[in-house]
């Protein structure tokens, strides 16, 4: 890219009155890497269903939004989001399911040193409580989260249907589930703190291998550590931490049993 073309591309990183945040026109070589701190009134700050996010580079952002920050879609790839904090302004209701970063349809995505905070929904009696910090859908693959922090989410800290998900030194705290895995995943170290429903849930047919799981349950209340569905594979090589008295180490979801799942837990997990 020529110096003139590069200058023109950088000039497109401007704030608009409609969303009070930079409009990022992306493509190979384009990025938003300056520090941006503020409140965005947009439904989604950056939506891959509305613009091309291929080659996107985002860093040093501190954003409070009303619905979501980034949605990767339409097969977009080569996306890097790093060194940022994303906060939901207030709990959502109805069909506005909040997610900080979601990979709906995309691949080769890196999310590194990003904190997602307070992605919650208002509870409704009889309805499932959604609200994920980070998520991926069935059409996503090769997604890596490295040294990320999911805190204060009403459902999953990391809720992924992704194939080839990598979780590298990630943390979840004050969440329904630390990990909800529907696809295939590998993890180095996962720190799970003060979860409410389950630390690691592996849905039917899904698989995850975790090298080290560090657990910090809330004091004084029994919790569930692992849950597996029919056909699921769960391998955890080592656990660090202690469960409260009366806790459940392994829960079989409806239709699942020792006969139709693969569960291998290190001695320190039992």
Strand-helix topology:
Elements: H1 3-11, E1 14-16, E2 21-23, E3 31-32, E4 36-39, E5 44-47, E6 57-59, E7 61-65, E8 68-72, E9 76-88, E10 99-103, E11 106-117, E12 132-136, E13 141-146, E14 149-151, E15 156-160, E16 163-168, E17 170-173, E18 177-181, E19 184-193, E20 198-202, E21 207-216, E22 224-228, E23 233-240, E24 248-252, E25 262-265
Parallel strand pairs: 3-6, 4-7, 5-8, 6-9, 7-9, 8-10, 9-11, 10-12, 11-13, 11-14, 12-15, 13-16, 14-17, 15-18, 16-19, 17-19, 18-20, 19-21, 20-22, 21-23, 22-24, 23-25
Antiparallel strand pairs: 1-2
Describe the model:
With 270 residues, the chain is mainly beta. It has a domain at 26-196. The protein contains one helix and 25 strands. It has one helix at 3-11, and strands spanning 14-16, 21-23, 31-32, 36-39, 44-47, 57-59, 61-65, 68-72, 76-88, 99-103, 106-117, 132-136, 141-146, 149-151, 156-160, 163-168, 170-173, 177-181, 184-193, 198-202, 207-216, 224-228, 233-240, 248-252, 262-265. The strands form three sheets. Strands 5-8-10-12-15-18-20-22-24 form a nine-stranded parallel beta sheet, with no helix packed on it. The protein has a six-stranded parallel barrel with strand order 11-13-16-19-17-14. β1 (14-16) and β2 (21-23) form a beta hairpin. The longest helix has 9 residues, at 3-11. The chain is globular. The relative contact order is 0.08. Keywords: Signal. Residues 1-20 form the signal peptide.
């Amino acid at each position: 890219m020529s110096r003139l073309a590069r200058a023109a591309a950088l000039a497109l990183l401007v704030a608009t009155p409609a969303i009070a945040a930079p409009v990022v026109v992306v493509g190979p070589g384009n990025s938003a890497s300056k520090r941006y701190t503020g409140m965005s009134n947009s439904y989604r700050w950056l939506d891959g269903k509305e613009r091309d996010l291929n080659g996107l580079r985002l860093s040093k952002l501190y954003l409070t939004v009303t619905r979501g920050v980034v949605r990767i879609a339409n097969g977009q790839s080569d996306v890097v989001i790093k060194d940022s904090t994303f906060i939901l302004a207030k709990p959502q209701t109805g069909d506005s399911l909040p997610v900080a970063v979601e990979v709906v349809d995309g691949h080769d995505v890196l999310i590194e040193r990003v904190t997602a905070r307070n992605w919650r929904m208002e509870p409704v009696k009889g309805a499932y409580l959604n609200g994920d910090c980070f998520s991926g859908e069935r059409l996503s693959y090769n997604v890596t989260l490295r040294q990320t922090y999911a805190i204060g989410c009403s459902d999953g800290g990391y809720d992924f249907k992704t194939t080839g998900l990598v979780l590298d030194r990630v943390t979840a705290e004050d969440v329904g589930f630390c990990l909800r895995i529907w696809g295939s995943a590998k993890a180095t170290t996962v720190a799970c703190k003060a979860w409410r429903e389950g630390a690691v849930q592996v849905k039917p047919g899904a698989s995850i291998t975790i090298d080290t799981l560090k657990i910090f349950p809330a004091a004084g209340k029994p919790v569930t550590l692992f849950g597996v569905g029919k056909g699921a594979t769960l391998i955890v090589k080592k656990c660090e931490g202690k469960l409260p008295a009366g806790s459940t180490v392994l829960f079989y979801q409806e239709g699942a049993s020792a006969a139709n799942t693969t569960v291998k837990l290190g001695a320190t997990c039992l």
